[in-house]
Amino acid sequence: MDEELSIIDTKTRNEKIKNFLVLNKKLIFLSITVLIFIILGFYSYQIYQDKHKQRISEKFNSAIIEYEKGNSSKSTQALIEVIEDRNSTYSPLALYFVIDNNLIESQSEVNELFNILIDKTSLENEIKYLIIYKKALYNADTIEENDLLLILKPLINSESVWKSHGLYLLAEYFFSKNEKQKAKDFFNQIISLESVNQEILRESQKRLNRDLSD
């Protein structure tokens, strides 16, 4: 009796499955098709990304070679294109090279390139904070206090490893302008940080003890 019931249950279950497949074959076919397209699209995108990154790498390396050959104009244009491509690896490297070798004289143009990296490029937080610090460092000698503070605000309000560098830049900026109380405030912020670059900590302590002691 139990065996007969088991056979009946199996037949009933198989019949239900068959009926479900018949009634929903269009939906099932559509679902399988969509899944296949998603998988193909994912792998196609990965292939495209890998090839694109390879092209950017080749363009960056070619720009460096052109610079070493003395073709600075051609090199600069290629590096700008790499930056504008917003690649997380090569765009920052391209901007660093442009700045380190003074390839662009216009400060506003360089700042526009900084903004591409900071505002429009997908970067790890610490890389982005480093670029913010470099932008502040690049501009520190030529901009007003409020503009420098505005550039560094995201870094100063973060817990980044570069925070102490930003505070130290501000402290030295105000010290150079003989605004000693402001300088002292920023040096003291460095001293109070839980995580701080040790060299910056030592230099801040020296400055406080030697030049800003009451």
Characteristic key phrases:
2 domains; 214 residues; mainly alpha; 80% helix; Serine Threonine Protein Phosphatase 5, Tetratricopeptide repeat
Q: Give the low-pLDDT segments.
A: none
**How many structural domains does the protein architecture include?**
2
What structural class do you assign from the helix and strand content? mainly alpha
CATH architecture of the largest domain: Alpha Horseshoe
β-strand percent reads: under 5%
* Rg of Cα set: 30 Å
Topology pattern, helix = H, strand = E:
HHHHHHHHHH
Overall geometry comes to flat
Helix content: over 70%
* Level-1 CATH class name of the largest domain: Mainly Alpha
The counted number of beta strands is 0
From the 3D structure, determine the CATH topology of the largest domain: Serine Threonine Protein Phosphatase 5, Tetratricopeptide repeat
Largest sheet: none
Count, helices: 10
Mean of all residue-level pLDDT scores = 85
Ends: how far apart?
Answer: 101 Å
